[in-house]
Description:
The two termini are 32 Å apart. By secondary structure, the chain is an alpha+beta fold. It has helices at 3-20, 41-52; strands spanning 26-34, 61-67, 70-73, 79-81, 97-101, 105-112. Strands 2-1-6 form a 3-stranded mixed sheet, with helices on one face. The chain has a 3-stranded antiparallel sheet with strand order 4-3-5, with no helix packed on it.
Amino acid sequence: MHELGIIIEVVQTVERIAREQNLTQIQRLTLQIGELSSVIPYFVEQCYPAAVDGTMLEQTELEIEVLPGNGLCKSCGKVFNLREHERTCPRCGARSWELLGGKEFNIKEILAC
C-alpha cells in the first residue's frame, strides 16, 4: 500500500504551504483522485489519521473528490467513461481512444480556519 507514503508527502506539502502563508490551523483538505490513477481513495482515507498524527493537520477534515476516467473515441468522437464501458466506445464499439482525464492526483483546496 503506497498510499501512506503519498499522504505523508501531501501532509508535508500542505504544512509547507501553511507556513509560507502564515496559517496556523487547517480546517479541511480536499484531494482530487482520478479513478484511473494508482491511488485508491479508500486506502487514502484509512491512512490519513496515521499520516496526520502529531502534525498541524491532525484535526483536519479530509475530503476526496474522485475524478472520472474519461476517454474520447478516436473513431466517432464520443466522450465516455473508460471504466464503465471497459475501455470500449459504447456508441461504435471501437477500442481506440484518447485519455481525457482520470489519472490525476491533486491537492485541490486547503481551507484554513
